[in-house]
Automatic annotation (TrEMBL):
Tree of life domain: Bacteria
Ranges where the O-methyltransferase C-terminal domain occurs: 119-330
Name listed for the protein in its UniProt record: MstO
Active-site feature positions: H255
Alphabetized UniProt keyword annotations: Methyltransferase, S-adenosyl-L-methionine, Transferase
PROSITE patterns named in the record: SAM_OMT_II
Residue ranges occupied by any O-methyltransferase dimerisation domain in the UniProt entry: 25-93
Origin species: Scytonema sp. PCC 10023
Length: 352
């Protein structure tokens, strides 16, 4: 269906059309985000609906809702049928909240001001340095989240969304924890990764360590999986200290912080484990600036730019990661690609 879309074919066949499309892509992103946030894909899951029906159901302005949906139909995200109803297609199926690989949450997030407003400061940040988000909101990204519970909950829901669970299965398949008795998931959110790990390794005990506001969600997940005897929750701040264990795992934590902050986190990790301890990092590793046809690898530079917009963090090369680890008294053992589209890699190091 995607290949048959004449609009997509036109974009793909003309450099000028491709550029013109990309110039206006922010509008398309917002249209997708609004449709997802309104819950339109879920309302269409049983059968196509008219714009009038959707407008009444959602209490929306009919004219503007129609413009939104016709735009998305033109772009191939929904289907406009001969009876003038709007239907899901193979693309918008992924925007249903109950789809096994749902993208509803990451799509919806794009409609919130905390996500789209910082990009408006990209010009000034490229010219003068700094962090876009801080220019707009006059605070750092993580402090903003801590002071805005609704946004924080949405952010953490996105970080643990169901598409990432496939990634966690791939991570767990790579981890050798046979000689480990206790592992701490540092910045573990509500615990999806460590729950997956514990279910595959019955000898293992685990700790979810993250900010205190995630306590109820994490404890609920622990109980749902009957792991209350093997998994605990500890709230805290990894800049202040990290619970002791045989091993630690940090999933996409370091890229959210600059080099000084990342080193402080890694040093605190080293303080919390023994001389034979291990640390597992899940991060994107920049092997070269641009050379890959892999979608996951191509996204790394966009994510690297996104870090500049939101946190001042960065994606790092193997050399940069090795330097951070060595300065914190860890020795890099190996870096291994993680199966999937994500472009992420598993980095294992041991304490020295």
């Amino acid at each position: 269906m995607i290949k048959e879309n004449p609009y997509i074919q036109k974009i793909a066949s003309s450099a000028q059309d491709f550029l013109f499309f990309m110039i206006g892509a922010h509008g398309i992103s917002q249209a997708i985000a609004v449709a997802s946030r309104l819950g339109i894909p879920d309302l269409l899951s049983s059968e196509p609906k008219t714009v009038t029906w959707l407008a009444e159901k959602l209490e929306c302005d009919r004219d503007n809702l129609e413009r939104l949906l016709l735009c998305l139909c033109d772009m191939g995200f929904f289907t406009f049928k001969s009876d003038e109803t709007i239907a899901l297609n193979e693309v918008s199926e992924f925007l249903k909240s109950d789809h096994p690989q749902s993208l509803a949450v990451p799509a919806s997030i794009r409609s919130y001001e905390y996500d789209w407003m910082p990009w408006g400061e990209l010009y000034n940040t490229v010219k003068n340095g700094g962090v876009c988000f801080e220019r707009v909101f006059h605070t750092d990204f993580y402090s903003y989240l801590s002071k805005n519970p609704e946004i924080n909950q949405l952010f953490n829901k996105n970080m643990g969304n169901i598409t990432r669970l496939t990634l966690f299965d791939s991570v767990v398949a790579l981890l050798n924890v046979n000689d480990i008795n206790h592992i701490v998931d540092v910045g573990g959110g509500k615990g999806d990764l460590i729950i997956t790990l514990l279910k595959k390794n019955e000898h293992l005990k685990g700790t979810i360590f993250d900010q205190i506001h995630l306590e109820s969600q994490a404890k609920k997940l622990i109980l749902e999986h009957n792991l209350e005897n093997r998994c605990e929750w500890i709230g805290g701040d990894f800049f202040q200290g990290i619970p002791s264990a045989d091993a630690l795992i940090l999933s996409e934590i370091l890229h959210g912080w600059n080099d000084v902050q990342a080193l402080e986190i890694i040093k605190n990790c080293r303080k919390s484990i023994s001389n034979k301890g291990k640390i597992f990092l899940i991060e994107r590793v920049i092997d070269s600036k641009i050379d890959s046809h892999n979608i996951g690898d191509k996204s790394r530079n966009l994510i690297n730019l996104t870090m500049a917009v939101f946190t001042g963090g960065k994606e790092r090369t193997e050399g940069e990661l090795r330097k951070l680890l060595e300065e914190a008294q860890f020795a890099l053992e190996f870096i291994q690609p993680i199966k999937g589209w994500s472009g992420l890699k598993l980095i294992q190091a041991k304490s020295v």
